[in-house]
Amino acid sequence: MTDKPFWEAVALEDMNSEQWESLCDGCAKCCLLKLEDEDTLELAYTDVACRLLDLGTCRCTHYAERSRLVPDCVSVTPEIIPKLNWMPKTCAYRLLSEKKPLPWWHPLVSGDPETVHRAGISVRNRAVSERWAGDLEDHIVDWPEEDIEGS
């Protein structure tokens, strides 16, 4: 028996579904639309959220059906995390894959699902729905890739 929390003691690929799902901090940064330059492959983040995202709760309104309703929605698995260069630096899946600790505001650490919002990490009050956004190029932002140092 270990005194470590499960996310420090269990490898990502060995987590059960409850453990895996609890890693999501609810920031919804992965639900923001991104633009990729065809020539340079450089990514640009926008403040435009997927139409399925509830901007108040930062949760998908149709989580179980998201891949069917939004065909380019990626189901995150331990195997593909290292390939998802667009995942925010604050993402728990990315952090743990890179052998980094979870930050203080992560709900598993704080015990409170609201700390991710109070810490200003989530898209709450910072994003617009793709239903009303218009031209994505008018919505390019850099805050989704802010580092967690000092957060």
What topology does this entry show?
Elements lengths: L5 H4 L7 H6 L9 E5 L6 E7 L3 E2 L4 E2 L5 H4 L22 H6 L9 H4 L4 H4 L9 E2 H4 L6 E2 L10
Parallel strand pairs: 2-5
Antiparallel strand pairs: 1-2, 2-6, 3-4
Describe this structure in words.
With about 150 residues, the chain is of the alpha+beta class. The protein has one domain (about 5-145). The protein contains 7 helices and 6 strands, in the order H-H-E-E-E-E-H-H-H-H-E-H-E. Strands 1, 2, 5 and 6 form a 4-stranded mixed sheet that branches. Strands 3-4 form a two-stranded antiparallel ribbon. The longest helix has 6 residues, at about 15-20. The protein is globular and about 50 Å long. It starts with 5 loop residues before the first helix and ends in a 10-residue tail after the last strand.
Give a quick set of tags describing it:
151 residues, alpha+beta, four-stranded mixed β-sheet, two-stranded antiparallel sheet
Compose a concise summary of this entry.
It is built from seven helices and six strands, in the order ααββββααααβαβ.
What's the pLDDT, averaged over the residues? Answer: 91
For the CA atoms, what is the radius of gyration? Answer: 16 Å
Distance between the termini: 32 Å
Helix content bin: 10-25%
Helix/strand order, N-terminal first: HHEEEEHHHHEHE
How would you classify the helix and strand content by structural class? alpha+beta
Q: What best-fitting shape do the alpha-carbon axes yield?
A: globular
Q: What's the total helix number?
A: 7
